[in-house]
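In the design runs reported in the main text, the only information available to the sequence generator was the tokenized backbone. The following block is the verbatim input for one such run; it is reproduced so that readers can re-run the procedure and compare outputs position by position.
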């Protein structure tokens, strides 16, 4: 019996050490005789007056706490996306796509398939391309990124960390910006290829793992031509690929204008490799006239255009954002647009 008890304690200790290594938790809280006890490490936890069963239960609970996931899975594909299907079959209808290294909650698994929830997507993925258990947690530790969550509508993003500085752009409530560093009263962020500052008062710094993309993110209205649908579908397949300054390769890396140039080239449209120059092509339109395949341009506080994205419908764009995020989908007003242009006239 003593040997069995020692084995259980050893298992609990190992479980606690594993979970503390893999989970973003700095301390564990427990109730003991009405007093809140904070344990900063395994040794402190094991020195409390708990039964072996309680140690094991605590270890199991702690192992399940990782960035909001209790049974985390990570898309393990060499490139592109992991298909999420309505049924556990390669013939099943696709309901979403998990980009390489994105995360999900594994709800159940059987016969080579896992039923998962990732962002707004829920369905089946092949276990051949999904990391689970400790492997998934170790991978998630490498992938988790710090983001800045905007808590107010129309947040000013400034060129310098003071209220007298020029406003680079404005971003809506709920938008996520890439975190760079914390200063006194200000947060330095990356927004596309620029670095700028937001007031610490109106944001929350938190950690995020990427999640799946829904298939319903492309919504088309009446009168949208086949070529527009094809162009948007073509552009969207490169989500998750690298951002490379000056690049034009959809698979090996492109910057914002290089991405747009290469997508449109596929459909017989020649554009220059410069966002400001691209803004001079086609026909200027209003936001209310936007259709999938139109271009949206963004600029700095001096009115100079420095970024371009392709509108894909449903209030969203696809664009090559920056080195951290690569090619991604965003809300079309994730920052203040300065011009809308129609290149495709059909």
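Verbatim output:
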């Amino acid at each position: 019996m003593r040997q069995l008890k020692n084995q259980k304690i050893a298992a609990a200790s190992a479980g606690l050490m594993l979970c503390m290594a893999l989970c973003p938790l700095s301390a564990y809280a427990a109730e003991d005789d009405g007093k809140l006890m904070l344990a900063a490490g395994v040794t402190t936890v094991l020195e409390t007056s708990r039964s072996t069963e309680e140690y094991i239960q605590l270890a199991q609970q702690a192992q399940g706490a990782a960035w909001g996931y209790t049974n985390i899975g990570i898309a393990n594909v060499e490139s592109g996306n992991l298909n999420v299907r309505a049924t556990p079959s390669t013939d099943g209808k696709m309901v979403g796509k998990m980009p390489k290294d994105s995360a999900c909650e594994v709800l159940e698994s059987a016969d080579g398939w896992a039923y998962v929830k990732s962002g707004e997507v829920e369905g089946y993925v092949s276990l051949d391309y999904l990391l689970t258990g400790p492997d998934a947690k170790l991978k998630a530790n490498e992938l988790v990124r710090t983001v800045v969550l905007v808590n107010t509508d129309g947040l000013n993003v400034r060129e310098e960390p003071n209220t007298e500085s020029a406003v680079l752009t404005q971003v809506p409530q709920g938008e996520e910006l890439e975190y760079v560093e914390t200063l006194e009263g200000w947060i330095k962020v990356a927004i596309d290829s620029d670095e700028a500052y937001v007031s610490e008062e109106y944001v929350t710094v938190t950690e995020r793992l990427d999640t799946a993309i829904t298939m319903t993110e492309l919504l088309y209205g009446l009168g949208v031509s086949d070529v527009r649908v094809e162009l948007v579908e073509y552009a969207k397949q490169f989500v998750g690929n690298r951002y490379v300054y000056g690049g034009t390769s959809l698979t090996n890396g492109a910057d914002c204008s290089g991405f747009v140039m290469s997508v449109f080239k596929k459909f017989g449209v020649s554009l220059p490799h410069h966002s400001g120059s691209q803004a001079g092509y086609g026909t200027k339109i209003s936001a209310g006239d936007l259709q999938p395949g139109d271009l949206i341009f963004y600029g700095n506080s001096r009115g100079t255009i420095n970024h371009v994205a392709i509108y894909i419908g449903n209030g969203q764009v696809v664009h090559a954002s920056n080195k951290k995020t690569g090619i991604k989908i965003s809300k079309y007003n994730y920052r203040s647009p300065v011009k809308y242009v129609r290149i495709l006239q059909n």
